[in-house]
Specification:
CATH topology of the largest domain: Diphtheria Toxin Repressor, domain 2
CATH architecture of the largest domain: Orthogonal Bundle
Mean pLDDT: 88
Radius of gyration: 21 Å
Number of strands: 2
Length: about 160
């Protein structure tokens, strides 16, 4: 599936989720494209079984289209939150997430998702994140303790 097809599918899903169907003009507005481009893409998405499109009647996303769109939107949200942890502004994080989501492999995404869950599990900011924020603001490494791991190679 191409990057454009994924973007269209996500837009269609969001619009259909709000009211049950989408119109070409709404999709064009959401993606900043011309209505003629939407019509061409709808034909491709319909051929692949992701949408049902009837001219002048609206666009319905299929169950398979919903499944794919939900995965893509979840990836977007996790990657956006990942960059938010590091202080990237929301608009920029959204743009970056949309680009990365198209190319990231499953293993890398799963690691990012686990990291985001790990950080979210703390109440307040974990100390290391506070230290990072201080470093970002001042450019100076804050004094902090290193935690040594116990292992065969590194006895405590």
């Amino acid at each position: 599936m191409s990057e454009k097809e994924e973007d269209y599918l996500k837009a269609i899903y969001v619009i259909c989720r709000e009211r049950g169907f989408a119109r070409s003009v709404e999709i064009a507005e959401a993606l900043g494209v011309k209505p003629a481009s939407v019509t061409d893409m709808l034909k491709k998405l319909q051929e692949k079984g992701f949408v049902r499109y009837e001219k002048y009647r609206g666009i319905i996303i299929t169950d398979e289209g919903k499944r794919i769109a939900e995965v893509l939107l979840h990836r977007d949200a996790v990657i956006k939150e990942f960059f938010g942890i590091f202080g990237v502004d929301e608009k920029n994080a959204d743009v970056i997430a949309n680009k990365i989501e198209h190319y990231i492999d499953d293993e890398s995404f799963e690691r990012i998702e686990k990291f985001v869950k790990f950080v979210d599990s703390f109440k307040g900011n974990p100390r290391w994140l506070e230290h990072f924020q201080e470093f970002m603001e001042t450019g100076k490494l804050p004094e902090c303790e290193r935690v040594r791991q116990n292992s065969k190679d590194n006895p405590a």
